[in-house]
Amino acid sequence: MAKQRRSGDEVADRIIEWGITEKLETCFDRAEKMKPCPIGGSGACCSMCHMGPCRLVGKNAEESVVGVCGASLATVAARNFARMIAGGTAAHSDHSRDMVFTLLAVANGETRDFQITDVRKLYRVAGYLDIEFEGRQVNDVARDVASTLISDFGRQKGEINFARRAPKKTLERWRKWNVVPRGIDREVSEAMHRTTMGVDHDPDHILLHGLRTALADGWGGSMISTDVTDILFGTPMPVKAEASLGIFKDDEVNIVVHGHEPTLSEKIVDVVSEPEMIEYAKSRGARGINLGGMCCTANEVLMRHGIPTAGGFTNQELGVMTGLIDVLTVDVQCIMPAITELSKKFHTKIITTSEKAKIPGAVHIEYDEHRAKEVAREIVRTACDNFPNRKAKGSHITDKFPMIAGFSHEYIEYMQGGRWRGSFRPLNDAIMAGRIRGVVGLAGCDNPRVTSTGIHRYLAAELIKNDVLIVSTGCGSAACGTAGWLTPEMALENAGPGLREVCEAIGIPPILHLGACVDNSRILTIASAMAAEGGLSDEIGGMPAVGIAPEWMSEKAIAIGSYLAASGVPVIFGGESPVEASREVTRILTEVWFERFRGAMHFEPDPEKMLSLALTYIDKAREALKLKKYEPGKFGTEKVLMDMAARRDIERAAKPHVGL
Ligand code: MSK
Asked: What CATH number labels 437-653?
């Protein structure tokens, strides 16, 4: 797909155009000006020591060029890739560590601002960890759960706890190739050690440890974060919300939460509806307070409270350019430092809140879990005080789109039979019958190097037309949400006949918003449940399922792609390959990983080829499973999916519904 517009989001594109007339620079301009280094970009630059940086380039570089120390191109490319995995794993897992410490603080009565919202989920997690919960005080169970999960970060030997949640055959593969993570921090630390100058030089060996590190993210840090966040703030269920840069209000104080961590933003959600805060806003001339989100902090509060989202990564500067944001509060990850410089042209105050992350030019109001609400109120008051400073200029946009988010794996199970009969059977049956051709996890960032959000949208539209059910996360969800595609109507109008029928029967969109990028762990849980249900593959590998990150930019995306590949999911990334320079490393990521784990990692910049590769993987998996050949509109026999009325009848006949 040739780059025609800067953003695939028409609303975003209008603001970009307005910014150009106002001479406001954004990531789109910088991406055009900054030419990527072809040597570093393809994995051929080694900067691990100060004898270089060595550039392993030239004719037959793979065979004939080595660094000063003698490191080959494959060694260098593998080391660079493993370090990206380590960076991504560290990011998700450090976020996760803070979530578990919050749970521990709650259990120990050290904070009154947080509580356990989903006791059922706490018990479910306690069950995974073999922690007794019957007849015990909730806080005692929570303390044991938190302490056990904390041990996963620093464990030196053995296996992380949630590895046991993987299908048996998947776990056996990991054990065979010695990639079961021991402790999260250990794997990250060892990845950095192995890839420093003069240690591990075997590309395959380096990349196997890369997979162990990535698995420590997927089945460790990320999965722990998802579960603990659900315990603290509630397991998501579908909620209606809105998406677009048009969510801001002219006459209200607009506050945006941006980044990834949901703790402070949850408290901001709480306090913005307090009468004193609303009165305070009115005292500054506003009619009220309007809270919105950006990136994955947005996804967290969207999934649980229906807080509207202004979109994904590349929308952050555009949000400031609306001239309507009074405070943009940020925590960690995916925050462009450019926002502080840009905000000087407007009245927007940028507030950093994490002790780990400061930006020159921002106001710092540090989050402290022991006085979280107090900090949240201070931020809200700062926004109200800034409201009268709003200038008239700005690209005011009013378009916004309805969306439904909140498809946790627990809800997906529930929607296929209700609380008492929830299972993945109907989904497996629909796949077996060819009604659903396969499942794609559409995830990852949006990226100004391409028509931002455009490739997500192209693939989403084509996949559902081909009867592929999409589960989306992170900025992939935002890309679809800001297009207005996260609604059941999308299925009626655009999905293939089989997928449309399934979506109509259950009343769901054909693109299910699973959460933030850390919630890609929900995909692992769903795939494991599908394997356990039977009828498809008995491990994650071999399912008619593919992961796609068409516009990735973050190291976190590389960690996610790698843990999906190690778990058995073929993954396709867009853009240029970060290991392009090495045929050997490319072969390991694709052929060798597929042979060992039934997952692989491809880099393919052409969206049409990405689509075709995804469908080929799905169809080959169907063929290997001896499922009915996919033919649009022609289905085999399957059990009838229960509609909402049938589900309610079953529940009435059982016990009253009290949640998931
Ligand atoms: S925010 S990691 S740009 S998905 Fe999770 Fe979006 Fe990618 Fe950041």
From this structure: 3.40.50.2030
